[in-house]
Amino acid sequence: MPISTNTNLSAMTAARILNVTGDQLDRTQKKVSTGFNIADAFDNGALYAVSQNIRSKLSGLSAVNGQLGNALGSVQVANTAVNSISNKVQDMRKTLVQLADANVTGDTRAQLENQYAEQMVSLVNYAQAADYNGVNMVSNGTNFSVIRDAIGNQLALTAVATSVVAAFSAMSVAVNGGFSSAASLLANNLSFATAEANIGTALNRIGVLNTRLNDQIKFNSGVEDATKAGLSYMIDADLTVESATLTSLQIKQQLSSQSLSIANQRPQIILSLFG
């Protein structure tokens, strides 16, 4: 290769290699700092567009589970209320059994009759207080739906108020005036036993709703995890590899810089020819 003061081919080659190495080093540093192979559209427009679409769907799934969690809160509050009602109904049966005894008279009967009435008030209070974020599945018979997936499909939730109200109606019978009214309420299968069956129906319905909501949340979380894994394979950087690449490029950059320095000094040899 001829030595010339007009064109230093060695320096040009060294400069080109240094520039290429610098570009590679910039890309690797970007991967290390962001953790992504595809951090923006400049890295790969097509893949970045796909990744953004996947991120949007992930955001939707997260929002869906938030709404399902809100509905689950309503079901859990309803469960607390109906379970309290069920426990109170057990106490009411005990009271009725005492009132159905002909030997219970006078002040004792009056106290038991008042106790039954107060127990009935407690049932109503439990139902009315079962409110969660404006939704009461125990005292309000309105059914509602909640979104269950990121494409807008709905999960229908049936309120338990119909069963609870039917139970209250069966039990809200006056038991004063002697043992016969209490005995009749206990003996008549269309009365207290039916009320207990209705409360059992409400408890079962709440259990079904709780299972459906939890299963849907778990399913959505599984889809979300799988989607995140797929997105990771697409755009995440292997930091172990990138770390090694970064070290290699830093050394290469230093060597290229030294080569350029040597190449730039080469034309000075001409001066010795005229010494």
From TrEMBL:
Cellular localisation: Secreted; Bacterial flagellum
Keywords: Bacterial flagellum, Cell projection, Cilium, Flagellum, Secreted
Main location: secreted
Family: Belongs to the bacterial flagellin family.
Protein task: Flagellin is the subunit protein which polymerizes to form the filaments of bacterial flagella.
Keyword field contains Metal-binding: no
Secreted as UniProt keyword: yes
Domain Flagellin C-terminal: start-end pairs: 197-274
Domain Flagellin N-terminal, residue spans: 6-140
Protein name: Flagellin
